[in-house]
Amino acid sequence: MIDSKLLDDLAKRVAGSVPSGLQLLQEDLQKNLRSALETGLNHLELVTREEFEVQRAVLLRTREKLEQLEQRVAELEAGKQPASE
């Protein structure tokens, strides 16, 4: 989930850059921008850094296990006698 403080800050910055003639609408614009940003970012299906790091660790363990299994299969195949006809 996207940090709501980050969304608020981003919306406030964008709304703050509005020309002075439109600053009366700044609060309304800020709320609408925040909502639009949140909706848009949620559609991207982003993950948090923590979720990313957890999946990264799982992938590393999986790769290590795969390498061990590949080595074991190679050892077993090397020790296997060819079948006689």
Automatic annotation (TrEMBL):
Q: Which residues form a coiled coil?
A: 49-79
Q: What is its main location?
A: cytoplasm
Question: Which GO cellular component terms are attached?
Answer: cytosol
Question: Which pathway does the protein contribute to?
Answer: Cofactor biosynthesis; ubiquinone biosynthesis
- Key words, A-Z: Coiled coil, Cytoplasm, Ubiquinone biosynthesis
Record-level GO BP terms: ubiquinone biosynthetic process
Protein location: Cytoplasm
One Pfam family per UniProt: BMFP
Q: What does this protein do?
A: Required for efficient ubiquinone (coenzyme Q) biosynthesis. UbiK is probably an accessory factor of Ubi enzymes and facilitates ubiquinone biosynthesis by acting as an assembly factor, a targeting factor, or both.
| HAMAP family (UniProt xref) | UbiK
Q: Which family does it belong to?
A: Belongs to the UbiK family.
Query: What's the protein called, per UniProt?
Result: Ubiquinone biosynthesis accessory factor UbiK
User: Which organism was this protein described from?
Assistant: Sedimenticola thiotaurini
What's the gene? ubiK
